[in-house]
Predict the 3D structure of the following.
Amino acid sequence: MAEDIWPTIHAERQSLADDLAGLTDAQWQTPSLCSRWNVHQVLAHMVGTAKMTPPKFLAKFAAAGFAFDRFADKEIATQGAGGPAATLAEFRAVQNRASAPPGPRATWLGEVFVHAEDIRRPLGIAHSYPADQVVRVIRLYAGSNAIIGGKKRVFGLTLRATDTDLSLGSGPLVQGPVISLLLVTAGRGAALAELAGPGLRVLQGRLMGSDGSKAG
């Protein structure tokens, strides 16, 4: 699909930055939906991703011994070293960049949608995402196990959105809001309560103990 992803990503980054303005120190330390990271750390991860290029990614990934968690944690430590206010300022500074690590284009839509929800949901912040672009990411995640592990979670299930045009896969039905379908495909069990259908128990079983911290 030739459609430019970057206007959507830039708009979503700006909305997230606006939502995070004025957070208290305690709110910045709130555990996110990424089980290993708090709100500040997820934002630092998003700053690092916005600054990344394929050559830079490959060099840093190699320096981390090709271990994704080690690579990601080093980036978070670097980008978050100045504290939450500095991280938010840097996020605003890079919000209109159009660079990313290597990978399918829809991956970087998923990065901003999923990690924004990782931050917003624990803080009780509601947000409406562009449904057609969320569908695009679900289709990517459901067809691949690379990093996200989405295919193994939803294989043999039908995902159907109740708020937009999406019916994907075959087998027992799982249905609900499209953003919730995206989150469970990315391993976020927090969205299970928003879904229904005969396939839900299967999906719940697959998500038991899922980390979700690698969705990015």
